[in-house]
Specification:
By secondary structure, the protein is of the alpha/beta class. The chain contains twelve helices and five strands. About 60% of the residues lie in helices and about 10% in strands. Keywords: DNA-binding, Phosphoprotein, Transcription, Transcription regulation. It holds the Pfam family HTH_18.
């Protein structure tokens, strides 16, 4: 269920938004409506909503400032910005600060708003699923560095050697056959052994390890995304971006933007 705050200094707009969201096709709860940016910030800190629908121009604190302040406390909260001003500079500023959507009030339709919220809800559940899978993979990776019960000491030794090789050469164009040769096993036998010990296919493990290293570079350095792609073993930056979106649930650009917003 999405928990939503509506913030707009125009009472008719607040009432209309509240009304149209009652006729919904998704699970949501309006946890409050407020008339200015300061109230939006205070209510968000108290209620911890999933989504805040904000007017860009409000008294006491404008929508962009309110959004930035809320993000510092609640970095996972999503924002939909409303405005009467058809000015691209407003849209650019809102999106660059992390807004999910920027909509002109004159063009807003209830069906459009519900569609936007449905997409946010879907993305959040998808991201939660990906995070759960990532956590499970991380646990599996940690276990591979120790002996597994039910597997022989020799098997664990060979897989540990393979993992060390992957971790040292992930930025190269390594293959299953190459890693298998490093531990003196045939590719077919090594593939089965790797899956048996780690619980993952070799290719999936390599992708996730590379993307984990990429995330560190995206959040801890100012390297260009193209350079990061090369550093984690992908010579095609476009392919790297598509892969990152598929497995991490977010584009490299948004990953970096999200963490920059947290640091502000």
């Amino acid at each position: 269920m999405l928990r939503i705050i509506i913030a707009d200094d125009e009472l008719p707009i607040r009432e209309w938004l509240n009304y149209c969201l009652k006729d919904k096709k998704i699970s949501l709860e309006i946890v409050g409506t407020v008339a200015d940016g300061l109230q939006a910030y205070e209510l968000a800190v108290k209620e911890k909503p999933d989504v805040v629908i904000l007017d860009i121009r409000m008294p006491k604190m404008d929508g962009i400032t309110a959004m930035k302040n809320i993000q510092k406390v609640l970095p996972e909260t999503e924002f939909v910005i409303l405005t009467n001003y058809a000015d691209f500079s407003y849209a650019k500023q809102a999106i660059s600060c992390g807004a999910k959507e920027y909509i002109l009030k004159s063009e807003l339709r209830s069906s459009e708003l519900i569609e936007i919220l449905a997409k946010i809800e879907k993305d959040r559940y998808t991201q939660q699923d990906r995070q759960r899978i990532a956590d499970q993979m991380e646990q599996a990776r940690s276990k591979t560095l120790t002996e597994y019960s039910g597997n022989s000491i020799d098997n664990n030794k060979f897989i540990k050697m393979a993992l060390n090789y992957i971790h040292e050469h992930f930025n190269d164009s390594i293959s299953l056959a190459e890693v298998a040769s490093q531990v003196y096993r045939s590719p077919e036998y090594f593939s089965r052994l790797f899956k048996e010990v780690t619980g993952e296919n070799f290719s999936i493990y390599l992708i996730n390890y590379r993307l984990t290293q990429a995330k560190k570079l995206l959040t801890e350095t100012t390297l260009k995304i193209t350079d990061i792609s090369y550093r984690v073993g992908y010579q095609n930056p476009s392919y790297f971006s598509r892969l990152y979106k598929k497995y991490m649930g977010i584009t490299p650009e948004d990953e970096r933007r999200k963490n920059w917003n947290k640091a502000k």
